[in-house]
Amino acid sequence: MRPLTEEETKLVFEKLSKYIGENIRLLIDRPDGAYCFRLHKERIYYVSQDIMKRAASVSRKQLVSMGTCFGKLTKTMKFHLHITALDFLAPYAKYKVWVKPGSEQSFLYGNHILKSGLGRITENAGRYQGVVVYSMSDIPLGFGVAAKSTQECRHADPTTIVVFHQADIGQYLRNEDTLV
After folding, report:
1. For residue 164, what pLDDT is reported?
2. Model confidence pLDDT, tens digit, residues 72-127
3. Which residues form a coiled coil (predicted)?
């Protein structure tokens, strides 16, 4: 477990800012203690300072994980956000999309969201902006990237893709044998 380098921190914060904007500081400066990001085996973990100090007594080879895995750094230095970060992204999300009950299952199987399945969308969401996807009963289902802005969604055909799928809670079941 090591602290992130300057370049790694920039990659992680750029990705997180697509989804939660300036609320990144709320992840670090929390009233219940200090939290930080750490790298271990190409995975970025979000962990409290107390747990990090306790994990220092475990050797790196024997340490499987600690804290919450936020994503993975690829060999080409790109950061991919994992679904395990959803619980931390959802409360601070700038842009949200609600899907109709008939389209929830399609999204949870890994498909994009069509205009016909769109229930609501927050105002002023831009094209290619990160969005958190909710059910109509306000349960976070996953996250994606807006394929159309809010204005473009109003005039789009029902078969037009409005949100590109990134990750969803159905991945726990689809990939349970390979999820780390």
Report:
1. 96
2. 999 999 999 999 999 999 999 999 999 999 999 999 999 999 999 999 999 988 89
3. none
- Position 44 scores a pLDDT of 93
Sequence-separated (6 or more) residues with CB below 8 Å from residue 35: 27, 28, 46, 47, 48, 49
Amino acid at 58: V
Parallel, antiparallel or unpaired: strands 161-168 and 113-114: antiparallel
CA gap 142, 131 in Å, rounded: 9
Q: In this structure, what token pair is assigned to residue 159?
A: 């078969």
Average pLDDT over residues 32-52: 89
142 - beta bridge partners?
A: 133, 168
pLDDT tens profile 146-172 = 999 999 998 999 999 999 999 999 877
Q: HEC states along the chain?
A: CEECCHHHHHHHHHHHHHHHHHHHHHHHEECCEEEEEEEECCEEEEEEHHHHHHHCCCCCCCCCCCCEEEEEECCCCCEEECHHHHHHHHHHCCCEEEECHHHHHHHHCCCCEEHHHEEEECCCCCCCCEEEEEECCCCEEEEEEECCCHHHHHCCCCCCEEEEEEEECCHHHHCCCCCC
CA 67/CA 34 separation, integer angstroms: 13
Contact criterion met (CB below 8 Å) for 12 and 85: no
